[in-house]
Design brief:
Length: 647
Amino acid sequence: MDKTSRIKELVKLLNEASKAYYQQDTEIMSNFEYDALYDELVSLEEETGLVLSNSPTVNVGYEVISELPKEAHPSPMLSLDKTKDVSALADWLTDKDGVLSWKMDGLTVVLTYADGELKKAVTRGNGEIGEVITNNALVFANLPRKVSYKGQLIIRGEAIITYSEFERINATIPDAEAKYKNPRNLCSGTVRQLNNHVTAGRNVNFFAFNMLDIGDADVDATVNSKFDFLESLGFQVVEHVDCNAKDISDKVKFFADKIATNDFPSDGLVLSFDDIAYGRSLGRTAKFPRDSIAFKWADEEAETILREVEWSPSRTGLINPVAIFDTVSLEGTLVSRASIHNVSICKQLKLGIGDTIKVYKANMIIPQISENLTGSGTLVIPDTCPACGKNTELRADNDVETLYCPNLDCPAKSVKLFSHFVSRNAMNIDGMSEATLSKFIDMGYLVELYDIYRLEEYKDKIVELEGFGEKSYENIIKAVNQSRNTDLVRLLYGLGILNVGNATAKLIVKHFDYDIEAIIAAPAEEFAQIEGIGDVIAENIVNYFAQDNNIRVLRELLKEVTLVKEEKSLEQDLAGKTFVITGSLNSFANRDELKALIEDRGGKVAGSVSAKTSYLINNDVNSSSSKNKKAKSLGVPIISEEDFLKL
């Protein structure tokens, strides 16, 4: 292949990988492979002088695709040139003083303060246009809402979610494939929520790493003086140290030694000239400023032998591949397992049992396979499910192949289904861990969901099980009995209908006025008419209730529980009306409070304007926002809070 063709191929591959990672939360290649291909592209572009307009070396990110308002940055937010060579950092510094800091792995946000108050927050977006997320920034865990400085402040920093918070949130999600893949993806989704109540519950933290000049010669002089100024105002700044060409290696090691115990994600370091005027005098390239450079860890790799690929089924049937290999030491810990993510990556790596592979820790944390030195390509994708023995299916979604078990009676699905049923937002039965559920299923005590309410039949056997006793049994039965008084939303969500989450269950129950028989008998067309439920989810619901065993299980469950219907204490004067809320509020603490009032009075609240929308609530009635434009084009009335309260 000639060099021009190779450049075109690399641009296509890298752009597809970036789109999958940043927009679809899917990995189609490892970080290691991406970096290697990127470096190859840079080398070929320098050698040939050919740089394509859509090359990732000149383009910064992708266009934002959410419904959040968009806004242009006052100056482009450029990426940084990067190196993995410590000596290159020393050469870059020459005889100048530098500042070395963490390159945190979250979502870059630009904050604007005026008159001592946070006025605006905008994401980095594509470097030129970002999304306005002010409402969410107001609930960042460590961000000052008011500061003593009354002039204009424009601060750049990283919004991150810690590993411990990431694990806490994932622990509340029983479904394996529904769990968040990493803190960066979780943070990105959290910061860009349309409902800042969700953001507030996830403890997002902001770390400042830059500030535009404020017109004070002393503050504007150096990176350190800006950091000091921000800290004096109450902002948390990225950890940083002074350095020079002689001690840069020691300073890099100082950061590297902290990686294993850090509670926050990072993907390297940033080195900047401390003297801001000098850094600016160097100018910039089309993509990179010359006053800073990024350092990415040269990943510690180890050779090992692939001994097995474990295929792990989940509740919805997705079967996840996990590599099992001879134990190696990486970054100070012993590693013997690594997720392969999907079948496509198995094929790209040409895996085979017995192959010699190289493994590393992405960002010194997550074990991954970087290279297959053998490349036998002999790995057999199982045609039967390891849990039930029934035939599997290969499915392709966005050009990514995944393996599924379509067997509705697969025991792996049973464990995950029971785990979902007892979870907090479903029947909320404490003490029923997956290990306990698996044991009860294996012993034959649990076959169908309603068997949870008939465990007393096995009391004598349960108290004799290893790890159990009278007290454990009594605690389980107490929790089970406490869940008997419940509501239809919890029960419907707990059934585990595909794509029917807690919010969707609420919409369904409300639409059918708590009538389970009406829900069972409704056609797909009626479900699809509910705001927020499309044709796919409607078909999933109808297909679920079309199966005789599902109906039988539900009937038996209804014998065991008492459904408490929510009393409508307020006049239902908004029944049949659908509202969309946008912009800031004055009379309500937040959108959730207004939403609750609308729903209590019989109305519905949707996230986007459509032909079914009755009113758009926006205090800025004349705003040129996308929602206002959509409402006007559809003839939907735009009303203020005051107008709403008069309805």
